[in-house]
Amino acid sequence: MQRMTKTAALAVALAATGLLGMAAPAAAKDLKIALITSKTGPLEAYAKQTETGFMMGLEYMTRGSMTWDGRKIQVILKDDQLKPDLGKSLLEQAYSDDDVDLAVGTTGSGVALAMLPVAEEYKKILIVEPAVADAITGEKWNKYIFRTSRNSTQDAYAAAAAFPKEGEVHLATLAQDYAFGRDGVKALKEALAALRPNVKVDFEEYAPTQTADFTASAQRMFDALKDKKGRKIISIIWAGPHPLPKIADLKPERYGIEIAPGGNILPVMKLYKPYPGMEGAIYYYYNFPKNPMNDWLVKEHMKRFNSPPDFFTAGGMAAASAALTAIKRAGGTSTDKLIAAMEGMAFDTPKGTMIFRKEDHQAMQQMYHFKVKANGKNDFDLLDLVETIPESAMPLPIRNKR
Hints:
The chain is of the alpha/beta class.
């Protein structure tokens, strides 16, 4: 009988112990993240910026490898078309059929509110970006919801901080007649009462989202303010195509009325250029924050798109940073471990460090008081920084029922 080789003998021995058929270690499963935005509809620009920022955020965090803790990152993109029922079903699909580890979205507050119960039902994380309605981290909140975007109250406190501290000031508000607009006005009134009691809201005007003619709205605001003493200001809270030029064309200055337009995306804020000196508050403007992440974002965005990053680009990047920071800190994607890791978690963003408040998972963050430049160099050189508004200047109430 031919002598057995050493290799054959080893095979026999392994077979006897049952080790020969043992499979090699399985490759790590992809890290799957759903990104749901409203790319169809009036908020398309916001959605596209969020997607760009999210993907650039993943690139920055992984140094271009698109892997995290040994897992390849797979982003599943979905368009809710700004329809609440569709957003809800897409998130159900992401959690069940796509088996994502967590989800990020969405653009519209109404859609985001419809998605919140789905995260609770499937017991998986939903990072809300960029929807802002207070109810998302308020009465409609559940423990699976974390929000990197600012909420209406943060917008309101920042706007309030930008109003004069002294003297009699009378205000009329113009907002869209849906959750974003009404939440925004309610929050502004609360913020003014807390920070600027010298500013009184005398009139509230709500207009349909698709309004094209603001003549009647403007006249009602003018009538409410024109006979008041002190400074008289129209504060605009608006998403999408902005009514500023149409209100300004009706010459509110003949009644001594000013306009405070609030922050917006760059294509909208180009409309501010004819009105130098206008002041307001903004979530992000590319030239204001000074930190390594924002430096990289501005440089790379200019290189790739020949324009600076915008409002929601920064938000998308913040959401990506929050997701990966949480996974690293939790040591995986177990929902319970992610929640424990994310409550009170600090994470880098283009705006600087944000922290998820433990009580309601709202990201605490700084805002910016701006003034419209008199002579900008180009269509993107629009704002001067008056001051950075720290988190401590915006004492947000906790609105959930935890």
